[in-house]
Amino acid sequence: MKTYLPLVPPLSLAILLAACGGGTADEAKKPEPTAQVYTASATIGSSSDDVSVYGTSEAGPAGARAVISPAEAIVVAVRAPTGTSVGAGQVVVTLRPSPATRIEIAKNASDVAIATTAYQRAIRMRADGLVSNADVDTARGALATASATNRNLGLRGGVATITAPGAGTVQGLTLKPGDQVAAGAVIASIGSVSDVRARFGVDPAVAQRVHPGQPIKISLIDGSRAATVTVVGVDPQVDPATRLASVYAGVPAGAGIGAGEPLRATLSVGASSTGVSIPYSALLDDGGRSYVFVVKGGVAKAQDVSPGNSSGDRIQILKGLNPGDKVVIEGGTALEDGMKVAEAGAAK
Question: How confident is the model at residue 13 (pLDDT cuts 50, 70, 90)?
């Protein structure tokens, strides 16, 4: 038995085929993705090779006075930690004699008593003509020596207070209650506010490019109390702990920076140059490849560039950009080369 298919009019067949192909046409017309970005224009400007360094303020050579332990002792309390502003005579630490010092104190007290008795006996015997004036002088000298030793111990009571020898800021005090200090050991130093300098740790290679007299901008670590001063010295010797060399700068008396405060500074170690510069946020990196996204006609194109010196929040571009080129400064990490973008203006 034969089966016959119904005939379809040519017009109906054309309509049917058009309907079947409609989905493909719609898919082809889907809009390309559009990303919202912030842009800025490349400009002509000057830049220099600046580096940021960190350090602390410290008393200058004429402004540091040592606080010394008069005998071997145990720390009872720290009254003025590092960074504390103190006046002359203000208590810095409280000490008590160590076991060895207590024995020494007792022995010295005995020596003073014996020397006193001997001196008094020599005076009586001299009155009776039994000893000479030289014998009396010898007994007097022995008493004076014993008494001076007793005074120098400075810890004759149960507790002794160690005070600041002058006004300034406490530096280098690392002791804590319970620590033992040796006789004559430096407990801390008092930095005078009249003689303060800044010391910054720098890479040894950078230190070779710094010289006394060049300007350096210093401030507290939060950026306040900024001042432009001059480099007064460079020590190329590398600190074994930090592996850094040292750069010293003078601190003006009216800068409001005392000894022992953390600082940061900006130091120029290269010659200034003029060229195209962009915000640092526009520069991207992909495995050592430096590039930016340049927006033109609503499309972002990846452009390889050669970066140069940086200054503040901008960086010089040696090759790859022209003045006036619009670069993406926010939203670039989500872009792909050739993607359509909508410019939102300058970044906030």
Answer: very low
Element (H, E) at 201: strand 196-202
Q: For the purposes of burial, counting CB atoms within 10 Å of the CB of 298, is it exposed (0-12), middle (13-18) or buried (19 or more)?
A: exposed
Q: Token digits for 173?
A: 């005090």
Q: Which residues pair with 314 in a beta bridge?
A: 279, 311
Backbone φ, ψ for residue 72 (5° rounding)? -65, 125
C-beta separation of 168 from 85 below 8 A: yes
CA 3 to chain centre: 94
Residue 27 amino acid letter: E
Q: Is the Cα torsion angle 163, 166, 170, 172 positive or negative in sign? A: negative
Binned at pLDDT 50, 70 and 90, residue 312 comes out as low
The rounded distance, in Å, linking the Cα atoms of 225 and 292 is 36
How far is residue 271 from each of residues 145, 209, 275, 279, measured CA to CA in Å?
66, 11, 13, 20
**Dihedral sign, Cα of residue 244, residue 246, residue 249, residue 255:** positive
8 Å CB contact between 67 and 189: yes
The 3-state DSSP class for residue 100 equals helix
Is residue 28 predicted with pLDDT exceeding 80?
no
Tell me the three state secondary structure of residue 180.
strand
Q: Phi first, then psi: what are they for 250, rounded to 5°?
A: -75, 150
Alpha-carbon Rg for the chain, nearest whole angstrom, is: 40
Instruction: Report if pTM > 0.85.
Output: no
Q: Read off the tokens for 136.
A: 């009396």
Tell the residue number behind the tokens 């309509």, with chain if given. 15
> Which is nearest to 169 in space by CA: 68, 103, 299, 80?
80
**Is pLDDT of 19 > 80?**
no
pLDDT at 248: 95
Sheet holding 186-191, edge to edge: 64-68, 186-191, 168-171, 85-86
Contacts of 236 (CB under 8 A, 6+ apart): 204, 207, 208, 245
